[in-house]
Amino acid sequence: MFGDLQPVKTESRTCFGIAWFATEAEADKAHEIVRKAGRTYNGGFFHGRLCGRDRAYDIVVDGRKLFAVTR
After folding, report:
1. SS (H, E, C) 10-55
2. What is the arithmetic mean of pLDDT over 9-36?
3. Considering the chain, what percentage of its residues have pLDDT values greater than 90?
4. Which H or E element spans position 70?
5. Spans of all domains in the chain
6. Is residue 3 very low, low, confident or very high in pLDDT (cuts 50, 70, 90)?
């Protein structure tokens, strides 16, 4: 889905998925890919909302920040 970009971690949820990347630059590139594909949340309160870079889902794992992109 992200071409040559490899997420560090992924998670599937009911209405969307999240991919976390090691750098914000990678997350920004993934955001562009997701937006160009027209990916949206499928159901729930945010049904139809465009997926992409979402800082609200950024996490820290083992002291390292990971940057989130919804997909």
Report:
1. EEECCCCEEEEECCHHHHHHHHHHHHHHCCECCCCCCCCCECCECH
2. 97
3. 93
4. strand 64-70
5. 1-18+36-55+63-71
6. confident
